[in-house]
Amino acid sequence: MDASARIRQLMQQKGWSMYMLSKKAGLSATTLQTMFARSTAPSLATIEAVCGALDITLAQFFAEDGGGPVPLDAEQKALLERYALLSEPSRAEILRLMELLP
Q1: Interior angle at CA 63, CA 58 and CA 68, nearest 5
Q2: Chain centroid to CA 73: how far?
Q3: How far apart are the first and last CA of the chain?
Q4: 3-state secondary structure the chain
Q5: Could you read off the pLDDT of 27-86 as tens digits, one per residue?
Q6: Number of neighbouring beta carbons within 10 Å of residue 85
């Protein structure tokens, strides 16, 4: 995956300029300009900052399903955060219960 191209794609989807992304991600405009001009791969820290600005996860950034990022609402994020804290047996039980729901 070309991470620079992915960032550009996500910027276009949001209608953001390079300046807007740099401000929202807390990155210098020079960092982004250099990355795009030289087609250099961004660092993981840069990708994480971009994901934070776009309110997507790293998994969504690297998803290659072509569907683009799927935004999560506050309730979905809270559920995932709580699920992550559960023990493995508790996770299995939650999944078993969910399978019983219509």
Answers
A1: 100
A2: 13
A3: 38
A4: CCHHHHHHHHHHHHCCCHHHHHHHHCCCHHHHHHHHHHCCCCCHHHHHHHHHHHCCCHHHHHCCCCCCCCCCCHHHHHHHHHHHHCCHHHHHHHHHHHHHCC
A5: 999 989 988 888 788 999 999 999 999 998 888 888 866 555 567 789 988 998 999 999
A6: 8
